[in-house]
Design a protein that fits this description.
Blueprint: H1 14-23, H2 33-39, H3 47-56, E1 68-72, E2 91-96, E3 102-104
Antiparallel strand pairs: 1-2, 2-3
């Protein structure tokens, strides 16, 4: 088993040590509001509202084709493998596979 050594720093006089410590009296505060605001879902991004929007737009309004793809922004939260977590990206619209018509959500 090895011994853990602690580095005490350079030898400084008592008055130099207090001057050095006074520089660090104020703690560093890191604001996390931006991160927390990004993680909070908006009112229109709730799972129920998302499901209602997907259900309302399940077929194309132009050609009534039943195969429609939702269009998302790339702002979703990623998991440990780098894939997007379903339901975290912003739903911006829909795209019809038949006539290529796109409309907003």
């Amino acid at each position: 088993m090895s011994n853990l050594r602690v580095f005490a720093g350079p030898d400084v006089a008592e008055d130099e040590w207090t001057d050095t410590c006074s520089l660090y009296e104020e703690p560093d505060v890191i604001p996390f509001e931006a991160i927390l605001n990004r993680l909070k879902p908006d009112a229109n991004l709730t799972p129920v509202a998302r499901a209602k929007a997907l259900h309302r737009n399940r077929q194309c309004p132009c050609c009534d084709h039943p195969v429609v793809d939702p269009v998302f922004l790339s702002d979703g939260v990623r998991d440990g493998t780098g894939d997007f977590i379903p339901g975290t990206a912003t739903l911006v619209g829909f795209h019809c596979r038949e006539c290529n018509w796109e409309w907003p959500a």
